[in-house]
Specification:
It holds the Pfam family Abhydrolase_6. The structure is a single chain. The chain has nine helices and six strands. Helix 3 links the parallel strand 3 and strand 4. The protein has a six-stranded parallel sheet with strand order 2-1-3-4-5-6, with helices on both faces. Helix content is about 35%, strand content about 15%. Helix 1 packs across helix 9 and helix 2 packs across helix 3. With about 210 residues, it is α/β, with parallel strands linked by helices.
Length: about 210
């Protein structure tokens, strides 16, 4: 069975993936979704990736998954373990040498202007729990260039969330076409699909793994 190595988004924790993890484990898979050291100014993106790699029970048959800011981290994991596949879920897609802080201007990001850009389709009890767990982000993580010369040479998939109010579908389609050149898989969910559509997202991850 497959091990899914998950890089959560900015300001987030691994808990946000617990429902997806339950669905994947019910199918016999292994899931690793540690809390990344996102507030530690002494750590950089490479250290974040190491946190995930160090948590893996094995480096064979790994699918690296990155959500949102985790798009800067999951490719590092995929490259380190020669992953079976890389799956980016409504995620930032980095370019070589680009800092996360520069990504926004480089991609032409503009906000949707809509309210509740993250949790509009998430059940209220999960929203309350997620907000308790929100964390800050280190300045170092935004200012240090992405270290790879290219995206890792592994099968790469992108899950585009069609109800995302933060990374809107039209914006993300352009980013994916320009930076990945793949056809995204669409999911009718908002930005936090791991909480709003966990079973559907788990099914997509398994499909990408196969």
């Amino acid at each position: 069975m497959t091990t899914f190595a998950i890089a959560h988004g900015g300001g987030d924790v691994g808990w946000s993936w617990h429902l997806v993890a339950e669905a994947l484990r019910a199918k016999g898979h292994t899931v690793v979704a540690p809390d990344l050291p996102i507030e530690d100014e002494s750590k950089d993106l490479t250290d974040w990736a190491s946190t995930i790699v160090d948590a893996l029970p094995s480096t064979s048959d790994v699918v690296a998954v990155g959500h949102s800011f985790g798009g800067f981290v999951a490719p590092l994991v995929a490259a380190r373990v020669n992953a079976r596949a890389l799956v980016l879920v409504t995620a930032m897609v980095p370019s070589p040498g680009e800092t996360p802080g520069d990504w926004w201007a480089n991609t032409g990001y503009t906000g949707s202007g809509l309210e509740d850009q993250f949790f509009h389709d998430v059940p209220a009890h999960l929203v309350a729990e997620a907000r308790k767990r929100e964390r800050g982000m280190s300045e170092n993580s935004m200012a240090k260039p992405w270290p790879l010369d290219a995206m890792p040479d592994v099968p790469t998939h992108f899950v585009l969330c069609t109800e995302d109010r933060f990374f809107t579908p039209d914006f993300m389609r352009e980013v994916v076409a320009d930076r990945l050149g793949v056809e995204p898989v669409e999911l009718a969910a908002g930005h936090c699909a791991s909480l709003s559509k966990p079973n559907e997202l788990a099914d997509l991850l398994m499909a990408c793994a196969s």
